[in-house]
Design brief:
The complex is a heterodimer. Chain A folds into two domains: 229 residues, no CATH class; 134 residues, no CATH class. Chain A is built from 14 helices and nine strands. Chain A starts with a strand and ends in a 30-residue tail after the last helix. Chain B is an alpha/beta fold. Helix content of chain B is 37%, strand content 16%. Chain B is built from four helices and four strands. A four-stranded parallel β-sheet of chain B has the order 2-1-3-4, sandwiched between helices. The two termini of chain B are 29 Å apart. Classes of the chains: A alpha/beta, B alpha/beta. At the A-B interface, helix 9, helix 12 and helix 14 of A face helix 2, helix 3, strand 4 and helix 4 of B.
Chain lengths: 380, 140
C-alpha cells in the first residue's frame, strides 16, 4: 500500500518543512542516522552530512542548486558493510540511480539504507553556484525554488544550469523508498510525501502525516518537464555527435586534457580501487616516449589522453547515469558530460539497459544470452 | 606507389583459433603476412582497452577470434567477448573508425582451412577500406 501525505509549508519555506520531516524520521527507532545535504556553517556551501542528532539538522538544504559531488559514492561507503544501524539518505534522483548501479556492481548494499529523494530542481556548475549563492545561501535557495517552480529551468540571474541537468529526463526518482514531491504542488504552500516501497510505507506509517491524494497536476507537470528536457537532450546529442565524429574532431575535443583524471574520481560509477591508467602499465620508460615520437615525428604530451577517455567510455558508459560530475570536475572545461551521455545513450540502448532503472537488471557486460548479436560474428 | 599493406592485430584464443593457426601452419596453408597474432588464453579476457590501444596506435584492423559456441575452454568467455565487441562496434564509429575494422569470428581448433580463408578475406576487406586515420596522424 502506498501512503501519500502532504506537508503544509510555513511562511512559504520548504526547507524548514523538510528539516522537520527529516528530524521526524531520525527520531524513529529504526533509523540511526541520516545522510543529508546541509549548508556548512563555516562556508556558504552545501555538502552531504551524516547526522545522528536531530538538533543538528538546522541547515538542511537539499534544494540548493549546488551539486559538489555525487553522493552515491558516500552512500556506497556507508553501506558496503553493515553499519550497525539503518541510515536514511536524502539523494538526488541521479544519485539514487548511481547508487543502484553501485549496488549491482557489489560496491554498496541496499539493505541498511532508506532512500529518500526530493524532486530535483537541477543545479549549477560548482563555480557558478558560489557566485549565485553569495552571502545568504538559504535565501538564494528559496529564490531558486520559486524560480524553477515558476517554469524557469535553464538560467537564473545570469547563472546557467549545468548541461547535465538541462538534459536530464529523470527529475523524479522512481526508485526511492520515499519520494518528496515539489512539481505539480502549489509553490510555497505544500509539498508531497509518498512512499514507493514497503520500507517507505513502514516509515511513513509511524510519522502519522495527514494523508492526501496525489494531485493530478503533478504527473502533468512532470511529463511536461521531461519532454522539455528530452528535447534539449536530443539537441545536445546531435551537436555532440557532430563535434566528435572523426579522429581530428576528437583530438580537438580533448586537446585541453591534462590527464588529471578528475573526471574519473568524480564519476560515481567508476569504482575500481586502482584504475589501470595509474598502474605501472602506464608508467612508461623514457625511451618509450622517444620511440613513439620518432615513429610519427611528433606526439602530444602527456600521452594516452584519447586512449584514457575512450577506454573509460568502454568501461563505464553502460553504467553512466548522466549526473554531469565529470564536467563539474574538469579543470579545463572539456564538455565531458555531453560526450559521455551521448555515447552512453547509444551503448545502453543496444543492450536494452538503462543505468539505475532497476536492481533486477544485471549490468550488460556481466551477463550474456546465447542467441544474441549473431550478426556481428564472422566475416561477410 | 606500392600497394597499401594493412596492419592487422589479431587476438587468438589459446584453445581454438590459435590451435587452428598452428594447424594451418603444419598443414602448409598460407595466410597474409599483414596479420600480427597475439595469443591470449580466452577471448573473454580481451579488455576493450587492448582493442582501443591497437586502433590508436595505427592498426588498420583488429580481429578477435575464439572458440565456437559451447566450445569455450572457460565455458562462456566467447559470449562475453561478443558483448564487448558489440559495445566497441557502437562506440568506435562515433569517432570515425569504420565498424568493419573490428571483427569477431569463432574458429574451431580443427578449422585450419577456415582460418586461412578468414584471414585472407579480412585482409582484403581492410585493403579495400584503406589505411586507418590513426596511422600517420598525431593521436593525443
Amino acid at each position: 500500500m502506498t501512503i501519500t501525505a502532504k506537508i503544509d509549508l510555513r511562511e512559504q519555506n520548504p526547507l524548514e518543512a523538510l528539516q522537520q520531516f527529516f528530524a521526524g524520521i531520525l527520531k524513529l527507532e529504526d533509523i540511526a542516522a541520516i545522510l543529508v545535504p546541509q549548508r556548512l556553517p563555516t562556508k556558504n556551501t552545501v555538502m552531504p552530512t551524516l547526522v545522528t542528532d536531530a538538533s543538528f539538522l538546522g541547515c538542511v538544504d537539499p534544494l540548493a542548486p549546488a551539486f559538489p559531488m555525487n553522493a552515491a559514492r558516500i552512500a556506497s561507503r556507508l553501506t558496503r558493510k553493515p553499519m550497525g544501524g539503518k541510515a536514511a539518505a536524502v539523494l538526488r534522483p541521479c544519485e539514487i540511480r548511481a547508487f543502484i548501479e553501485l549496488v549491482k556492481l557489489k560496491q554498496a548494499r541496499r539493505e541498511d539504507i532508506l532512500l529518500i529523494s526530493v524532486d530535483c530542481l537541477g543545479a549549477f556548475q560548482n563555480r557558478e553556484y558560489s557566485k549565485f549563492a553569495g552571502q545568504n545561501g538559504t535565501e538564494s535557495t528559496l529564490r531558486f525554488y520559486k524560480n524553477v517552480m515558476g517554469g524557469n529551468i535553464n538560467e537564473m540571474e545570469g547563472a546557467e544550469f549545468a548541461v547535465a541537468c538541462k538534459a536530464c529526463e529523470y527529475p523524479v526518482s522512481e526508485n526511492a523508498d520515499i519520494q518528496i514531491g515539489l512539481y505539480g504542488m502549489k509553490t510555497g504552500e505544500s509539498i508531497l510525501v509518498k512512499s514507493q516501497t514497503e520500507a517507505g510505507d513502514h516509515i511513513l506509517k509511524q510519522l502519522n502525516l495527514p494523508e492526501t491524494n496525489e494531485p493530478s497536476a503533478r504527473q502533468a507537470a512532470i511529463n511536461a518537464l521531461i519532454s522539455q528536457r528530452t528535447g534539449y537532450r536530443d539537441d545536445m546529442f546531435a551537436k555532440t555527435r557532430e563535434a566528435s565524429d572523426s579522429l581530428d574532431k576528437m583530438t580537438a575535443y580533448f586537446s585541453n586534457c591534462v590527464n588529471c583524471y578528475n573526471c574519473r574520481v568524480a564519476c560515481p560509477v567508476c569504482y575500481c580501487r586502482e584504475c589501470v591508467f595509474v598502474t605501472d602499465v602506464f608508467n612508461h620508460d623514457p625511451y618509450q616516449y622517444l620511440q613513439w615520437a620518432t615513429r610519427k615525428g611528433i606526439i602530444k604530451m602527456p600521452t594516452d589522453t584519447l586512449f584514457y577517455h575512450i577506454t573509460r567510455l568502454a568501461h563505464m558508459s553502460t553504467a553512466c547515469v548522466g549526473c554531469g560530475q565529470c564536467s563539474n570536475a574538469c579543470p579545463n572545461d572539456i564538455p565531458l558530460a555531453e560526450l559521455f551521455r551521448t555515447i552512453a545513450h547509444k551503448t545502453q540502448k543496444i543492450f536494452e539497459y538503462e543505468a539505475g532503472r532497476s536492481l533486477d537488471e544485471k549490468p550488460p557486460l556481466s551477463e550474456f544470452r546465447e542467441d544474441e548479436f549473431k550478426e556481428i560474428v564472422g566475416i561477410d | 606507389m606500392s600497394e597499401f599493406e594493412p596492419t592487422i592485430v589479431a587476438f587468438f584464443c589459446n584453445w581454438c583459433t590459435y590451435t587452428a593457426a598452428d594447424l594451418a601452419g603444419t598443414s602448409r596453408l598460407s595466410y597474409p603476412h599483414n596479420i600480427r597474432i597475439i595469443r591470449i588464453m580466452c577471448t573473454g579476457m580481451v579488455d576493450p582497452q587492448y582493442i582501443i590501444k591497437a586502433f590508436l596506435e595505427g592498426a588498420d584492423g583488429v580481429l578477435v577470434s575464439g572458440c565456437r559456441p559451447g566450445d569455450c575452454h572457460y565455458i562462456n568467455g566467447n559470449y562475453k567477448a561478443r558483448r564487448r565487441i558489440k559495445l566497441l562496434r557502437e562506440i568506435l564509429p562515433q569517432f570515425g573508425f569504420d565498424q568493419q575494422r573490428l571483427r569477431l569470428t569463432w574458429i574451431g581448433a580443427s578449422d585450419g582451412v577456415h582460418l586461412s580463408e578468414i584471414m585472407r578475406a579480412f585482409t582484403a576487406q581492410i585493403k579495400a577500406l584503406g589505411p586507418s586515420q590513426t596511422k600517420l596522424k598525431m593521436v593525443i
